[in-house]
Design goal:
eight-stranded mixed sheet; alpha+beta; globular; 702 residues
Length: 702
């Protein structure tokens, strides 16, 4: 185990670094409603140019040298390797062939392996091992989709962390791979019907621009088994709205095809077509103003979770005989908590709510009457696995100091039975505690935050705190276990997770309160969380680290510019850093429902310019925290140009001597599907950077 020791004066963590000179175009600027905005680092948007490649190589050399000089870096790597070396099991489900399937990683495999067995507890066989698809673990299995008769299984993969998806098909019984292969799919499942499946894809991108150009014209195709992709038929497209996403869903009976449309509003439109006839599409809901999710189709009805007329969500029923939204009937009304999901189990329903950023699960009958509740151990996050054809239920539960455990649940008796509970070598989870607090933001709004720490820690203002946030896109931060985080906790660190506005913690109103012209609420909530931790004696600004990824990277970049005095270390990961041009790359246009765009109006352009991280870096000698930006060369969600331009601007500005580094990963993307080796590498560098700049030296503990 590692223990904390404070560095002596001779171990100062600050030294002046010589940063590479970034390629620039000093005369480049854009005009937004009469507002001229300089963009001197525009050349870094070209991620395939020689100049950018040279700059990336030079930046990585500086970062590698800095990190390799940290004396305790390898001790951190060793401890993270040990912490991650435990068996992790996913939630089992019953396949169409009657067998049980589940993912498991017995320790340090780069990717979890998909197994199957005849009964839970029986010896399992490997069904699909994604580790065999590449030598370095950079091919990730992203989805598994069995045909309704169980004969075939389609599966989706991504390479190097990209959002681009490939689809393969195998014989379920023999595991033999078929000749079918789909490329350039994106944001898609495989929805089976007849002798093939529906999927969503874009036209083949321009060579060399696969990971940066805007994605347009998302179409739904039908692929018939045994044919080439070139023969696939377009079954739905919307040429009038090239920026919309379209996703297909087929009822188990294969009678109905549903297509959702998204990308313009905060929700999704929905339409349906009878596959047994030659009828036209029936529009169930034309707008994208509401979240609409199909929970299931059964007995001639569609079960829909929506926030239409209910900001915290409600369960609706639509008759397939008249499925338009005006004819939907309410089955479960809006409640105090946010309705997250519904699973049919035999003649019952398992209904999942989120209450104060923590999950609760109730049992209902099909009429919408609540019958009981699944008792959970503590604050946490639940996953459910059930089927309307069977009363058999499995659920997973995880919390900050509770590795994901698997339970079976008897709907009739209300009893839960533990199936699998992992243990992490050298850790006693009873040594740690989580509490939830509600702190005031700048406008008085009460914001929830979880604080996790080792028992016995004193509020003396001298504890290192790691504050994490996101605050956007209707995403809720609920409790979950991280083996990497345990390194921080076992060394006396405190982990704080703030549930900022912009998320879904309290429904659509909470989400909207952190969007567009209200986005500053999110940053103020995060700053208030840090101030609360200081005021309550948990820490002080010299021991406070902030981190966030993607939209959370924007959060970190913006709050550092607003309050550089409040933090000692900042880790903005794969962040959206150029708010004036984000909508011009890959799927960036899809974020306009949360952010607005610089093309919307002068008011919106001024608002975005007022907090855009790359445009608001101070250059007057104000000391900034130590900052390590992270990105990856195959990130086609938030293109690396955001981080490139932000890091270059940071390094060129007068913000004090604390290091301003950028860590650029290779053969990696936005984060999903990252192999275990790369995860450990990344957290080794993040923790090494943090500890080095906090002046704390972790050392081996006997």
């Amino acid at each position: 185990m590692l223990s904390v020791g404070i560095m002596g004066a001779s171990c100062s963590q600050t030294k002046v670094l010589n940063y590479p000179e970034a390629p620039t175009a000093p005369d480049v600027s854009d005009e937004y409603f009469g507002i001229a905005v300089a963009d001197p680092y525009r050349p870094l948007e070209n991620d395939t140019s020689a100049a950018t490649a040279e700059w990336v190589a030079a930046e990585n050399a500086v970062t590698r040298k800095y990190l390799s000089d940290i004396p305790f870096r390898e001790a951190i790597r060793d401890r993270l390797t040990t912490l991650n070396n435990y068996s992790k099991s996913g939630l089992p489900w019953k396949g169409k062939d009657g067998k049980y399937y589940f993912f498991e990683n017995d320790g340090l495999k780069n990717q979890s392996v998909l197994y199957r067995c005849d009964s839970i507890g029986d010896e399992a066989e490997v069904f699909l091992d994604p580790n065999a698809l590449s030598t370095d673990g950079t091919v990730a299995l992203t989805g598994v989709f069995p045909s309704n008769d169980g004969r075939f299984t389609a599966y989706t993969i991504s390479r190097n962390g990209s959002d681009w998806t490939e689809i393969y098909v195998m014989d379920t019984r023999t595991k033999e791979l078929l000749s079918d292969h789909i490329e350039w799919a994106k944001f898609t499942d495989a929805a089976w019907a007849g002798n093939g499946f529906f999927y969503s894809a874009y036209p083949r991108p321009e060579a060399g621009k696969e990971f940066s150009n805007a994605n347009e014209n998302h179409q739904v195709y039908y692929h018939e088994l045994g044919t080439d992709q070139s023969a696939d038929k377009v079954v739905y497209e919307d040429a009038a709205h090239p920026l919309h996403f379209h996703s297909a869903f087929v009822s188990d009976s294969e009678d109905y095809l549903f297509v959702t449309g998204a990308g313009e509003g905060v929700g999704a439109s929905l339409m349906v077509k009878n596959l047994r006839g030659n009828g036209d599409w029936v529009v169930m809901e034309p707008s994208q103003d509401y979240n609409i999710e199909i929970m299931d189709v059964a007995d001639g009805k569609v079960y829909l979770l929506t926030n239409m007329g209910a900001p915290k969500g409600r369960l609706m029923c639509a008759s397939l005989a008249n499925p338009v939204s005006g004819a939907w009937t309410e089955l479960i009304p809006e409640g105090e908590g946010v309705l997250k999901g519904v699973e049919l189990s035999g003649d019952k329903m398992l209904v999942q709510y989120e209450q104060d950023a923590s999950d609760r699960v109730y049992v209902y009958d099909r009429s919408g009457k609540r019958l009981g509740e699944i008792e959970l151990p503590t604050y946490g996050t639940v996953g459910l696995s059930a089927s309307k054809k069977s009363p058999e239920v499995f659920y997973s539960f995880t919390s900050f100091t509770y590795p994901s455990a698997i339970y079976s649940y008897d709907v009739a008796t209300g009893n839960s039975v533990l199936v699998k509970q992992p243990s992490v070598d050298g850790l006693d989870m009873d040594d740690y505690v989580t509490e939830q607090v509600f702190y005031p933001s700048a406008d008085g709004t009460k914001v929830p935050m979880f604080i996790t720490y080792r028992k016995g820690i004193e509020r003396n203002g001298n504890n290192p705190v790691y504050l994490y946030g996101y605050g956007g896109f209707n995403v809720s931060l609920t409790p979950g276990f991280s083996a990497n985080r345990m390194l921080w906790l076992e060394n006396g660190g405190i982990y704080a997770q703030a549930n900022l506005r912009g998320g879904s913690e309290y429904g659509e109103e909470w989400h909207v309160a952190g969007t567009k012209m209200e986005k500053l609420n999110v940053f103020n909530d995060f700053i208030a969380a840090a101030e609360y931790l200081v005021q309550q004696g948990w820490t002080n600004p010299e021991l406070l680290t902030i981190e966030g990824g993607s939209n959370g990277g924007l959060l970190v970049g913006a709050t550092v510019n607003m309050r550089p005095d409040l933090f000692k270390v900042a880790i903005p990961r794969v962040g959206v850093m150029d708010m004036m041009r984000y909508h011009l790359f890959t799927i960036g246009w899809n974020w306009a429902s949360d952010y607005g765009t610089s093309a919307d109006s002068k008011e919106m352009a001024e608002y975005l310019l007022g907090y855009s991280p790359v445009h608001n870096i101070r250059n007057d000698g104000t000391p900034y925290p130590a900052i390590m930006v992270t990105t990856a060369d195959h990130d086609d969600r938030v293109v690396p140009a955001h981080s490139f331009k932000y890091a270059a601007a940071l390094q060129a500005a007068d913000t004090g001597d604390a290091p301003k580094l950028i860590r650029i990963d290779s053969n990696a993307g936005h984060g999903a599907g990252k192999p275990m080796t790369k995860v450990i590498d990344e957290y080794t560098d993040i923790y090494s950077f943090i500890y080095n700049n906090l002046g704390i030296e972790p050392s081996a503990k006997k």
